[in-house]
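User: Predict the full complex structure for these chains.
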Amino acid sequence: MTTTLIPPADPRQVDLAGKGQPLADKTFRWILFVCLAVGVVFLGVLLAYVTIKGWPRLTPTLWENMPSLRRPEQAGAQSAITGTLWVIGFTALFALPIGFLGAVYMEEYANPSSRFTRFVEINIQNLAAVPSIVYGILGLAIFARALALGQTVITAGLTLALLVLPVIIVSTREALRAVPQNIRHGSLALGATLWQTTWRQTMPAAVPGMATGTILALSRAIGEAAPLLLLGAVTFISFNPTGPFSAYTTLPIQIYNWTKESREEFQILASATIVLLLVILLAMNAVAILIRNRTQKRW
Amino acid sequence: MSATLAESAAGGLNPLRQTKPRYGEKVIRGILFAAAAVSILTTFGIVISVLIPSLEFFAEIPLTEFLFTTTWTPLFANPQYGVLPLVMGTMVITIIAVAIAIPLGLGSAIYLSEYAKPKARKVLKPTLEVLAGIPTVVFGFFALEFITEFVLKPIFPQIDIFNALSAGIVMGIMIIPTIASLSEDAMAAVPAGLRDGAYALGATKRQVALRVVVPAALSGIVAAFVLGISRAIGETMIVTIAAGLQPNMTFNPLEGMQTMTSYIAAAGAGDVATGSIEYKSIFAVGLLLFVITFFMNMISIRLVRRYRQAYQ
Amino acid sequence: MMSRTMSDIHDSAAPQSTNDLANTGRMDVSAVLEGAEIPETVSNIVFDLNNVQVFYGDFQAVRDVTMQIGRNEITAFIGPSGCGKSTLLRSFNRMNDLIPGARVEGLLAYHGFDIYGPDVDPIEVRRRIGMVFQKPNVFPKSIYENVAYGPKVNGMKVNMDDLVEECLTKAALWDEVKDDLKKSAYALSGGQQQRLVIARCIAVKPEVILMDEPCASLDPIATAKIEDLMKELAKDYTIVIVTHNMQQAARVSERTAFFTADVDAEGVRHGRLVEYGPTRRIFTAPHDPRTEDYISGRFG
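Assistant: Here is the predicted structure of the three-chain assembly.
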């Protein structure tokens, strides 16, 4: 651009319109857009690929039948579906109370500057970034072996619960923090104890945030495979779990098992199961978004 | 200060005294404290479950042999336990992934932060979130079945079925949302005043983004990079499915290679006798993995705290 | 200093001097002149403060307050911003305990018993000494549940329906809400919400109601309703109100305490009680020049 600092003698010569964006800026913007587009396009291709490839097997046999290595055309993923439900059930059973109560302690009871509080916070931040297979090692050594719980549903539930605990704690803390302070003051000024205030006013007001955090955490748990590889899920399971101490498999593990097989029929089965898994996750996240949009509290 | 005034005069009990001992409150506080302490117990649990078998392992295999020799053959009759091939495999795939994720992630973040209109943001940000929510086993499947077959084979006909490039590419895309969202948070924390000042001087969006916003958000952006690298190092399913299970001391991404994570997965899922040296090697590799990612996470957390403090 | 008597004020038809507060036109004190004259000292003491000081950590927020609050009277705390009025008020019901590092020194006695004594239960303190806040902080629940909350958490065995109706009636809100008690409290107007807060407060049968600028966020009509309500409530309760509005203090209170802020060498403000006495006297014949300055609008 050729502009000088000295205004021209004739004001009509000033051209504020300029000459448009310089090439460098336009190119830069395009580069950035391409960066974003790569991820978006990749996602689109992935979704299209698994849907197209798995289409032939997206039939009721997928959830009506058990897996079979000898007759892939009749194989289904029922044991993986029920296994996932059992494992996630136990994950929620362990993770939700501990996560909610731990977050309540940190937000409502703890002294923010005490060493314990800060130590817990650092721990949670670190645990959130530990590789998931390390949780598998933890589960193997402590739950499966030391506590002799074996390679069972309950071990998987405990291990995944510890894995998603940081997610629940962080999202619950945020939800509690969003509740205005003067609601708590109003309750305490009436002669309520801190627990009464927390249980009857603060937590109910934080429920929508806690719900979305829960869904986020459980979505993560449903998709996890790495820790369960060490906890016995890869063995060939063609039955539904019978209890917490039953052997099991889950949808991601079943996908992994079929992916490893060389025959094309199993690749198609894997694709179809992937579609099933993604649909479940999509439904859960849609519920989370619905909750988030429905509850606009006017404080 | 205890009551002195009318106590003796009234002769009665203090109406404000505690009538109920409120044990319930103390018990509840204890339960809540215990719940918060579970996180500390978890870290402790991870450390001992990884450390104790590792110490037994290093009693038999010297640490120097583990860290510095280049043959990893636990299953052979004369087993060798040099971990460098696994570290190499992790490194090659991580480098490929990060080479993709950092530019694309940072570029996406700058676009979303400085350029995108609100309507576009409403569509693009959730798309990245969807990408972040896809289970890694799905990425692994996609890498093996699609990327290797239909993208890489046409370009490199000699490529192995299991190769590092496919795993690296897919892992890179998987990490983009992590880097993008953390970088974007860091850029959003930059005060509007800094941008406005630059615009007022006639700077273009490009100049503002590159010379004002990114430098101001730098520690947060670096934290995002470090976290992305840590995720790449710790990722299991993609490499287990797509990069194969053969330890391989090579830089060639067209070959397959085993990583620290895929070794743990393969050995842990297989039939390994408890208490054998091979079994303990799982934990030794796990210890190495944990130590590496722990230090990277600590660096990342420190950096995030620094940029948060700067703009508080 | 000026010392006027009642007859002087009544007899003056025109400003007698430039120091005549009542007729400078700065403030309408006719409200102050209504009602009976009350004695300088409090006869029926509820709160007895002796050299009370409030600290936040090392910082002294309120210095040396000595005063008594009388039963069934409305006592107003007035003064400029930042002079510790609200801080002092909050120490009456131990709400300051919620702030880490807050402590009270001196003796703050309630019916002769030190509120900060070692065996005192703060929960019980707060039941007997209720509080209405600046912004109406109704719970995100129904009107009924708001009023019923206090009795429920205190384990009061009462007929809840009757109690709710009685409290809403006393708070001059019953007629406006009786048709739908299940409606969310957020559906009410600001003035109605504040009356709901008052109803909620009296449901636990307190003796004292503390009010921290209760009309600050309300319009004049709602404010007037609350002020009328206060005078009604004073028949049953002891009320202490912090207010920035001098006219309000003049209208509703029997006694007024004027606070100011000492500014020290570093510019930090410490609250101090300047003068305390019957409202009528404070507004027509204050002893302290600072009080006179504030009331005549020369500062603050």
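Residues 1-26 of chain C have pLDDT under 50 and may be disordered.
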